Amino acid sequence: MVRLVTVHPALVHLPIGLAPIAALAYLVAVTRRSRLRAARWTFAGDFALVAAALFALAAAAFGLVSSDLLDWSGGLDRWRWIHLGGGVAAAALLASLAVLRLARRRRPVGRGFLAASLGTLAVLLFTGWVGGEVLVYYAGMAVRGGALGTLSPPLEKPGTPSGFKDAMGRMRGELSAVTAEAQRMVVEHPRDATFNAAAGHAAALEQVADWLGEHPESFEKIERKHERGRGRPPEVALVGGHDEATDPEVEIANYAVILGDGARELLAAARSHDLMGLSLAAGRLRAGCAGCHESVRWRP
Ligand code: HEC
Fold this sequence. Notes:
Blueprint: H1 4-11, H2 13-31, H3 35-69, H4 77-103, H5 111-138, H6 164-187, H7 192-214, H8 218-227, H9 248-271, H10 275-297
Helix pairs in contact: 1-3, 2-3, 2-5, 3-4, 4-5, 6-7, 6-10, 7-9, 9-10
This protein binds heme C.
Heme C (HEC) binds near residues 236, 252, 255 and 285.
């Protein structure tokens, strides 16, 4: 079945396949002594380049469609924008090179142009690597079996969150990783290495929960940033006029304790190789996330 979001990953193969052919043909062209041979190889390169540019523009356009239509799970943002920037840059570079060649198609290519096409190829391949390896293979974006990215393990190394949303994205990644490890051990054979991996993620989760407890004001920074005209409005029902009972700082501090305790419970289960305990603790922790999202994030 063809969906709007799967057109982009189908199209990208064309420029990724054609651009190296163009670069190779130009490479052969600049090394030919005979003018006739150089002209023929240049023609082959030009043909592949123009085709690559056209498909790259289409792939970039559908890339923007995918970027807009997909829901982006927290914690993937940096790679999302690197991929988008790289894709737009690669398509623009290929299109500029193609226009240059069409304007001078009677002249054979020189070393400068060869270098430019190799540079463009590098941008294109890096962008393709980010899309295929980081976003699809690792993060499971737009993959149904990966819950469309929501079950992807963390993309950032454990560390101090840069703000509230970063903390949310990190917790999502770490909890997903623990859930996936526990699930793997339900289906496959439990192994020490898998328990150890789960323990590592549980420890990282604990660190973020503790950070959240120490920074209950982090949420209000999003509100203030938005009030200053930057960033999206926070998805929260507490914005403006919150009363005592629903003060977000109190709410966040309370939940941070629940999350921290949940993370320590996870860690203990992983360390004692208790698969049932690990599965239960992961479910309880996720229920904590769901509780706050229902009461704070999405409350009508
Ligand atoms: C204290 C309440 C609270 C708890 C507990 C909580 N969240 Fe959140 N979460 C929020 C709010 C509020 C937002 C919306 C922030 C915004 O849009 O500005 C949010 C947003 C998110 C996002 C989207 C981040 C982004 O970049 O847009 C993710 C992912 C997330 N939470 C995951 C989790 C996970 C996983 C847990 C449990 C380990 C959890 N949250 C626990 C309140 C909470």
